[in-house]
């Protein structure tokens, strides 16, 4: 299934400056594997060493925060938009 992945500014060095890229996969996990295949190294910025979404990275499939859905097994329906959003902290 084809999806659109929104890339945050901090990760655009991996995508040649593109703010959005195409992705494929039935689940978020599939999409992230394909994304890392197309843009080597980006997966390590999203997933930790154990393969889980990094603590300070939020990922949405459509409007749904995957932490409150099925996590990496969240379905990625055809045409949906996946947003990768790094957490911002500070004072």
From TrEMBL:
It comes from the Bacteria. InterPro entries: Beta-grasp_dom_sf, Mopterin_synth/thiamin_S_b, Sulfur_Carrier/Prot_Modifier, ThiS/MoaD-like. Gene3D superfamilies: 3.10.20.30. Pfam families: ThiS (PF02597). PANTHER family: SULFUR CARRIER PROTEIN CYSO, SULFUR CARRIER PROTEIN SLR0821-RELATED. This is MoaD/ThiS family protein. It comes from Nonomuraea helvata.
């Amino acid at each position: 299934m084809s999806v659109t992945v929104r890339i945050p500014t901090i990760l655009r060095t991996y995508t040649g400056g593109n703010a959005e890229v195409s992705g494929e996969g039935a689940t978020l996990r599939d999409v992230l594997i394909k994304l890392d295949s197309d843009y080597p190294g980006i997966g390590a910025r999203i997933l930790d060493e154990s393969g889980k979404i990094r603590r300070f990275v939020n990922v949405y499939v459509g409007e749904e925060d995957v932490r409150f859905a099925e996590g990496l097994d969240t379905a990625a329906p055809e045409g949906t938009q996946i947003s990768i959003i790094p957490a911002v902290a500070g004072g």
